[in-house]
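Let us work through a complete example step by step.
Step 1: write down the sequence.
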Amino acid sequence: MSNINNYGVDMNNKQIKNLYSIEAVQDLSHEAAATISGGALDLSDKRGGEGRRVNNIANTQRSLGGFNNKASWYEVTGNRDWLVYTGENFTGTFKRLKAGTKGNFTGSFNNNIASVKPG
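Step 2: predict the structure and record it as tokens.
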């Protein structure tokens, strides 16, 4: 049998240790986690990023749910671009947001983002 108990799993009690008590597990900042995972996207409903935010979108989002058509600002962390779409399920007009950039949405994209995915 493997030495799985050494890594925080007790198969007899079917319990997992506290994540941070396991050797080599760290609490990473959002920026560090985004860099490791390839990147993340932050959105805000106010220009300049001052309003309500959706932080660290790290995966494909077919719909932004309650945040649909509210994004006015973005920040792309990490090393991958993101595609933002005006329609749900990656429909409508799209815009490529370059890795390492941030700014305000303008024109037809301001308050009109409904789905996102890594690009």
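Step 3: interpret the result. Residues 30-37 form the longest helix (8 residues).
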